[in-house]
């Protein structure tokens, strides 16, 4: 968040600014000359300073309006052409163990977001889900499960370091910015096959390649979606059907079925 000459935060301390924008957590202050400073409560902010903050998108926009500052993402000012976005995000669950330093402390007091680079979304506690506005002020207990969002790299590092006890369940967030492109590719696959312009065997592989090339899906996701059991089942089914046709068993079964159902009403035949 960049502070211009007209920003209401200029000339005020970090403590005052955080009171002006309720819920604002400044992780770092960067001066114009590139000097990174710890956001001490009595640090006076200047024009040209950049505040490194982390929060939900609606809260960031609220801070921007209150402080008359300018949000920046990826080195550019946030606008309609350059909206706030965070690719490669995952949802993960973390267990608060009895020996954890988080026990007896809130997410705010333990600096959870700043320390682990995660955005807490909810807390599960013995049959009750806590999803309130005061989530970060809730005192954590042993056995609580924290649902948090972060980048894949961050979660991988936390799993390796063991700073938090991570459950096996992690979920990739959907890439909503690719939704329209994905729908267009799906139509490009289905419509030519539906109107007999091209075979589905041709359009389907081309569609998969387009989705991978455009970034709608990744090779990793493509491999994970292929189930070996399904492939084995299809292969076995093809082999069985070829064997039935070659040996004449398919004809025998069809004739036997006709002999048994001969004279029955059409509805009953279809039901059988």
UniProtKB/TrEMBL annotation:
InterPro entries: Cit_transptr-like_dom, DASS-Related_Transporters, RCK_C, RCK_C_sf. GO terms for molecular function: monoatomic cation transmembrane transporter activity. It is found in: Membrane. Residues 1-69, 78-164 form the RCK C-terminal domain. The keyword Transmembrane helix applies. GO terms for cellular component: plasma membrane. Gene3D superfamilies: Regulator of K+ conductance, C-terminal domain. Keywords: Membrane, Repeat, Transmembrane, Transmembrane helix, Transport. The chain crosses the membrane at residues 183-212, 224-245. It holds the Pfam family CitMHS. It is a multi-pass membrane protein. GO terms for biological process: potassium ion transport. PANTHER family: BASIC AMINO ACID ANTIPORTER YFCC-RELATED (PTHR43652). This is Transporter. It comes from mine drainage metagenome.
């Amino acid at each position: 968040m960049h502070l211009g000459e007209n920003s209401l935060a200029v000339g005020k301390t970090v403590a005052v600014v955080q009171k002006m924008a309720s819920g604002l957590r400044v992780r770092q202050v960067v001066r114009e000359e590139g000097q990174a400073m710890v956001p001490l409560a009595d640090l006076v902010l200047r024009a040209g300073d950049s505040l490194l903050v982390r929060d939900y998108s609606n809260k960031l926009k609220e801070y921007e309006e209150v402080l008359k500052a300018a949000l920046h993402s990826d080195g550019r000012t946030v606008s309609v052409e350059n909206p706030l976005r965070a690719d490669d995000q995952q949802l993960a669950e973390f267990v608060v163990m009895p020996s954890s330093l988080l026990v007896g402390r809130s997410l705010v007091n333990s600096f959870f977001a700043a320390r682990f680079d995660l955005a807490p979304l909810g807390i599960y506690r013995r049959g009750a889900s806590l999803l309130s506005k005061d989530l970060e002020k809730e005192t954590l207990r042993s056995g609580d499960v924290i649902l948090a969002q972060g980048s894949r790299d961050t979660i991988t590092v936390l799993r390796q370091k063991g700073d938090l006890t991570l459950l096996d369940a992690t979920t990739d967030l959907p890439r909503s910015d690719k939704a329209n492109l994905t729908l267009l590719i799906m139509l490009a696959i289905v419509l030519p096959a539906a109107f007999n312009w091209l075979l589905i065997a041709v359009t389907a592989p081309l569609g998969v390649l387009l989705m991978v090339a455009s970034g709608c899906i990744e090779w990793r996701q493509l491999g994970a979606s292929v189930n070996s059991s399904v492939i084995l089942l299809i292969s076995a089914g093809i082999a069985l059907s070829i064997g039935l046709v070659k040996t004449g068993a398919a004809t025998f079964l069809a004739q036997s079925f006709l002999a048994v159902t001969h004279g029955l009403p059409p509805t009953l035949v279809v039901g059988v």
